[in-house]
Design a protein that fits this description.
Helix 2 crosses helix 5 and helix 3 crosses helix 5. The protein is mostly beta strands. It is 10% helix and 37% strand. It has two domains: 319 residues, Methylamine Dehydrogenase, Chain H (7 Propeller); 101 residues, Cytochrome c-like domain (Cytochrome Bc1 Complex, Chain D, domain 2), CATH 1.10.760.10. The protein has five helices and 28 strands. The strands form seven sheets. It has a four-stranded antiparallel beta sheet with strand order 1-28-27-26, with no helix packed on it. Bound molecules: heme C (HEC). Heme C binds next to helix 3.
Length: 439
């Protein structure tokens, strides 16, 4: 269904009394764009702030004021979209095709040559060359001014993302083969294998001026490296996986990370501190992110067919932070080790206060001395339900020394070990302090 609703998501925002309205020009308030008939897989923002969406429903939506324009040409899901100018768009889809849209005349031109899904697009800084990342393992280099098309080959797996350097001479590519490579655009040759991550890399975001390149991977790895040397500058991994979306604000001061668990994390790139971390999707992943031109809002697409645009500065004041756990906002280096262990490895699934909330695991409140599998508001697996085990420092230590799947065979707690004895001891000390019943 493609009716057009500019709807507001939560009751807290509804109290602001906003009805259907144009997309805010100075975007510092929450808004939503509904109308697509499937999840939003890609978002593009023009310099003037126009928004285009690529959807699983095979259409590209062009959002302007209250009336979106539907661009129908793809024969399958559309994954990515990019503004070449205010009057020209390019999209790529599961039909292996790129479509170039002239928004003034309404003409759509198909660009063919890929033998696999087109997952991402990048425009050279001079606007003359387009790069496409494809699951056929190649990178398409398309001249937008009439020159020849080339395909760069070398990756041994699907190519998931591409980005040009500021001077347009280098192209970075991320692949399911686990590597992040650098290509010489003039010769079409691979110049450097910058990162071997081991797990597939999904996403890239580059700020050449500031000298950083961020990547996000299927294993949850979220790292920032020097774009020339590949040296690691920051590790933002939070044990959430997979990382599905990365976006940098136009001025490069903010990096947004979206994951398979529906969270959006906004990071200050001067200090690599987490500024905001909130659950944006009640269910399912964040597939795509893009900042408004002024960096005030982060636009996100997920499973619910709607683009949600979150005002970064006020997100928590409006009660939008659906996670009550603000601790990601603290500086991880200033955190004691036990707390850091918990934040990174456990907090995504466990609360420390009574009530298991919407988390995947039971509340750990009052853990020590408690019989395993007895939190009333939680549905355990048969393996853990009211077993004879009592949680103590020793049993929690053993749980993560040998791993849950060995300690309690059949548990639905995911495989994970904490191999450092000191890390386990610090974690347990932290849990003891935090889970003790409060008067
Ligand atoms: C991805 C989610 C996830 C992560 C991460 C996770 N857990 Fe769990 N945990 C679970 C689930 C699910 C259960 C319930 C398992 C069952 O019913 O078999 C559980 C159960 C437990 C239990 C048993 C609780 C009880 O009431 O018997 C303890 C203790 C525990 N987890 C501690 C931790 C600690 C400490 C960490 C971090 C090192 C951690 N968990 C990380 C999902 C997770």
């Amino acid at each position: 269904m493609r009716g057009v609703i500019l709807a507001l998501l939560t009751p807290t925002v509804l109290t602001l009394g906003l009805a259907a309205r144009p997309i805010p020009a100075a975007s510092d308030e929450y808004f939503a764009l509904s109308g697509h008939g499937g999840p939003i897989m890609g978002i593009a923002v023009s310099p003037a702030g126009r928004i285009a969406t690529a959807s699983f429903d095979n259409a590209v939506g062009l959002w302007q004021d209250e009336t979106p324009r539907w661009l129908d040409q793809h024969r399958a899901a559309v994954n990515c979209v990019l503004f070449v100018s205010e009057t020209e768009l390019i999209s790529g889809g599961d039909d292996f095709a790129l479509v170039r849209w002239d928004l003034t005349t309404g003409t759509a031109t198909q660009l063919e040559g890929h033998a696999g899904k087109v997952k991402a697009l990048a425009l050279s800084p001079d606007g003359a060359t387009l790069a496409s990342a494809s699951w056929d393992g190649s990178i398409g280099i398309w001249s937008l001014t009439g020159g020849a098309t080339q395909f760069l080959r070398g990756h041994s797996g699907a190519v998931n993302d591409v980005v040009f350097s500021d001077d347009g001479t280098r192209l970075y590519s991320a692949s399911a083969d686990g590597s992040l490579r650098v290509w010489d655009v003039a010769t079409g040759q691979e110049a450097l294998r910058l990162v071997e991550h081991g797990f597939g890399i999904n996403e890239l975001a580059l700020n050449d001026v500031a000298g950083w390149l961020a990547y996000g991977a299927v294993d949850g790895g979220t790292r920032v490296v020097d774009p020339v040397s590949g040296n690691e500058l920051a590790d933002l991994s939070l044990d959430r996986r997979p990382i599905l979306a990365l976006a940098a604000s136009n001025d490069g001061s903010l990096l947004a990370v979206g994951d398979g668990e529906g969270y959006i994390m906004v990071v200050d790139t001067a200090t690599w501190r987490v500024l905001r971390d909130f659950r944006a999707a009640a269910r399912g992943p964040v597939w795509t992110l893009a900042f408004s031109p002024d960096g005030a809002n982060i636009h996100a697409g997920g499973l619910d067919d709607t683009l949600h645009s979150w005002p970064i500065a006020t997100i928590d004041e409006h009660g939008q932070m659906q996670t009550t756990d603000r601790s990601f906002l603290a500086d991880p280096d200033a955190m004691p080790n036990g707390e850091r262990q918990f934040k990174r490895k456990c907090s995504i699934c466990h609360s420390l206060t009574p009530g298991s909330a919407r988390k995947a695991g039971p509340s750990l409140s009052g853990l020590f001395g408690r019989q395993a599998g007895t939190v009333a508001d939680y549905t355990y697996s048969p393996a853990l339900d009211k077993t004879a085990l009592i949680w103590t420092a020793e049993t929690v230590d053993a749980l993560f020394d040998i791993g849950p799947e060995h300690y309690i065979p059949g548990t639905k707690m995911p495989m994970q070990r904490i191999t450092g004895a000191q890390d386990r001891a610090d974690l347990i000390a932290y849990l003891r302090a935090q889970t003790a019943p409060k008067e």
